[in-house]
Amino acid sequence: MGAIEEFEKVIAKRHQYAQDWKQKNGGKVVGWLCTYVPEEIIYAAGMLPVRILGSHETQDVTDAYISSIYCPFCRDALAQGLKGRYSYLDGIVHARSCVHIRNTFVNWERHVPIDFAYLMFMPAHVQSPRSKPFLTKEYGDFKEALEKWSGKVISRNDLVRAIVTYNTNRRLMKQIYELRKRDNPPITGAEAMKMVIASQLMDKAEHNKLLGQFIKELYGRDIGRETSARLMLIGSEMDDIEFVNLVEELGATFVIDEHCSGTRYFWDEILPEDDPLAAIAARYIDRIPCPPKDWPERRRLPFILELARAYNVQGVLLYQQKFCDPHEFDIPTLKQMFTENNIPTLVLEFDATIPWGQFRTRIEAFLETLTFNLV
Ligand code: SF4
Q1: What is the pLDDT of residues 203-235, one digit of tens each?
Q2: Nearest ligand 1 atom, CA 291
Q3: Distance (Å, rounded) from C-alpha 73 to C-alpha 208?
Q4: Mutation test of ligand 1: which of 234, 324, 329, 351 has the most ligand atoms closer than 8 Å to its C-beta?
């Protein structure tokens, strides 16, 4: 079976994968809600960190728990817990990012049976010099809580091994992303997204093996399709592989992205330091930030522009989860930045399910403007 088929299998059967892992390894499975959670510490404890994702179905089970004007992703994720689809989870961890997803955590803790629930602080002002020592201390508390819960000491070596495994994962995925700079990339945007989402669901050591196999498969691979318009996908949480597939079927290829199941998840490595917790903290402080943590200095914007140029992007899809204020606030600035750089943009608002009929017409029109260079 090829690496892509393996990624697809894990995504389709993610609950089964986690339960099989638990049975095989005898460890605990811990769900996380935001890419600011330091998975490395959970992994160092011999546990499997898995991202909690929605199922993109219409649902009404969250209405009594969470405001209907909170983003569809945080409601969809909570729905999975309320429906018992994550009943095998031993723990859930969240790092403060936005208020919407924090409500998912709070309601999960209160209304879904779970052995261990941990909410950690994550500085909003990551650019403050006090952020790193603060977060290092916070990670120390988190490590202690995991030790107390599991009855196992997390040693320095455990942390270093986890850092090496996670850094390898990041490096291999970056190597594969590098191939997307080619005139005819050997991988589609949907395939790249499957690779990253599988990474969020799998044991990283196992995912690393698959990435090694994938790199070999990609050498000389001909995917038998035209690249056509080179697109970039930018936004917040994104795991809608079907949407990416449908856009690519219209005659386009996503060659790069900036969202939570893409570069923002894995781009930045952990740099060596004497104290592994301080090294992990530095990574989460210095990583390409989410919009709410990108003030006063805007680091996200030049990073995005640099990527767009490096990957020779012709057009940008800016998507926003409905009611997601943090990302919505950035859209006018992003649009302006791309307009000044002659890169056309299209803004789409996502719900748990998407109105493909309406989207399709708009995307086709957008792709036509790119083809005829009308913008
Ligand atoms: S999509 Fe926006 S509102 Fe929803 S969890 Fe992410 S940042 Fe928060």
Answers
A1: 999 999 999 999 999 988 989 999 999 999 999
A2: 7
A3: 28
A4: 324
